[in-house]
């Protein structure tokens, strides 16, 4: 079957077009440290060879910007940059990329005395000067605190409201060269949020993804469920499959995305396990924010260790960085967010302690046993 016609406007990202009926753009994100120029350049090339249309790189410091300039000189694929929490780096990265992603939930961290509109206006001015597109990237786990207060107990509502608010800001500034993403580790929230948004702003191109989908094959299955339900309804113009895999295997994200799109276009919809019940392992996609590559092996070890609890309704989240780790482990029964030298272990929103990588697995098992004993 042909996918339903997508009625969003066209947004140009360098030589690539997102929306406007163009083919669905498949993208991914470099998982290496940006300042490791050799490794990041190789990862960009691997993703391009796997069939990526666009690659995103994280930038959080001036040293990252310097590395980005060299990476850009060595690569040819269109690049997007993730500004993380420092939106003021936009002017510095602009000459080297085609698109800038900012998170509305992070804008309040810097220059807190300035209105959000003023900060967005600065990003728009940079985009106009350097011929860039923007992505408004909202995550359930890092929504603007004001929106959380406005929508208590409804994180999907808060996420959608934040996205709509920033669309209004950008529209008010006379800038329409933007796309929106609304992501969560729960595929159901991804589906619900994007459906809600699409009914109110059918003109805005949408970037789909299940963030922290986890290890394959489960991570691919969760993403497939979300994509099948959204793309089959004409919702979604660009996609990213986020998987926890070794750096050399990041091309799997691109291949998985292409396969899912091809299956939907051919009318091949697969039955899937019920992720509502039983053990649920959430892990992030080893992006360039990860401060210790041991995170990937730890995620694999946690999944293997926890298999004895697969019949219990327990969620374990393994996050690789300080940006998403603290907030996006709060809803899990057990959360691990990884730093350069050790791992912060949580039970719900409560921090249990900070443990070395070689000791945290056994402590996690003890915590899992404690939780099982109460079920």
Describe the 3D structure.
The chain folds into two domains: 11-265, TIM Barrel; 290-373, Sulfite Reductase Hemoprotein, domain 1 (2-Layer Sandwich). It contains twelve helices and 15 strands. The chain is an alpha/beta fold and 375 residues long.
Uncertain segments are none
Rough outline: globular
The radius of gyration over CA amounts to 20 Å
> Quick one: CATH class of the largest domain?
Alpha Beta
**What is the number of helical segments per DSSP (H or I, 4+ residues)?**
12
Q: Find the count of extended strands (DSSP E, 2+ residues).
A: 15
Strand content range: 15-25%
CATH architecture name of the largest domain: Alpha-Beta Barrel
Average predicted local confidence, pLDDT = 91
Largest β sheet strand count, sense and barrel closure:
8 strands, parallel, barrel
CATH topology of the largest domain: TIM Barrel
Q: Work out the count of structural domains.
A: 2
SSE topology sketch:
Blueprint lengths: L10 E3 L2 E3 L6 E5 L7 H14 L3 E5 L3 H13 L4 E4 L7 H4 L5 E4 L13 H15 L2 E7 L5 H6 L4 H18 L5 E6 L3 H14 L5 E3 L9 H14 L6 E2 L11 H15 L14 E4 L10 H12 L9 E5 L5 H4 L5 E5 L3 E6 L2 E7 L3 H14 L2
Parallel strand pairs: 3-4, 3-10, 4-5, 5-6, 6-7, 7-8, 8-9, 9-10, 11-12, 12-13
Antiparallel strand pairs: 1-2, 13-14, 14-15
């Amino acid at each position: 079957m042909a996918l339903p016609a997508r009625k969003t406007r066209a947004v140009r990202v360098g030589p690539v077009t997102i929306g406007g009926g163009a083919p669905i753009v498949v993208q991914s994100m470099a998982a290496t440290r940006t300042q490791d120029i050799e490794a990041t350049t190789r990862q960009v090339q691997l993703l391009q060879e796997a069939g990526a249309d666009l690659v995103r790189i994280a930038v959080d410091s001036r040293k990252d910007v310097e590395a980005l300039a060299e990476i850009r000189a060595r690569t040819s694929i269109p690049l997007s940059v993730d500004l993380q929490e420092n939106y003021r780096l936009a002017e510095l990265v602009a000459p080297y990329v085609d698109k800038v992603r900012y998170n509305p939930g992070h804008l309040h961290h810097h220059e807190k005395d300035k209105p959000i509109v003023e900060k967005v206006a600065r990003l728009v001015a940079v985009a106009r000067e350097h011929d860039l597109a923007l992505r408004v990237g909202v995550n359930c786990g890092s929504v603007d605190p004001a929106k959380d207060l406005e929508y208590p107990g409804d994180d999907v509502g808060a996420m959608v409201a934040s996205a709509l608010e920033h669309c209004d800001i950008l529209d008010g500034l006379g800038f329409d060269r933007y796309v929106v993403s609304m992501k969560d580790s729960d595929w159901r929230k991804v589906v619900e949020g994007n459906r809600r948004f699409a009914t109110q702003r059918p003109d805005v191109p949408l970037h789909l993804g299940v963030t922290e989908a986890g290890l394959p094959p489960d991570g691919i299955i969760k993403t497939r469920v979300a994509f099948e339900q959204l793309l089959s309804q004409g919702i979604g113009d660009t996609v990213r499959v986020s998987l926890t895999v070794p750096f050399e295997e990041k091309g799997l994200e691109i291949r998985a995305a292409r396969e899912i799109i091809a299956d939907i276009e051919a009318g091949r919809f697969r039955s899937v396990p019920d992720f509502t019940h039983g053990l649920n392992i959430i892990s992030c996609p080893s992006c360039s924010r990860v401060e210790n590559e041991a995170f990937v092996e730890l995620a694999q070890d946690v999944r293997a260790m926890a298999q004895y609890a697969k019949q219990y309704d327990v969620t374990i989240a393994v996050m690789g960085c300080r940006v998403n780790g603290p907030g996006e482990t709060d809803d899990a029964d057990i959360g691990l967010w990884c730093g350069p030298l050790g791992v912060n272990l949580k039970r719900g929103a409560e921090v249990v302690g900070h443990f070395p990588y070689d000791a945290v697995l056994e402590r996690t098992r003890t915590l899992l046993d404690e939780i099982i004993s109460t079920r």
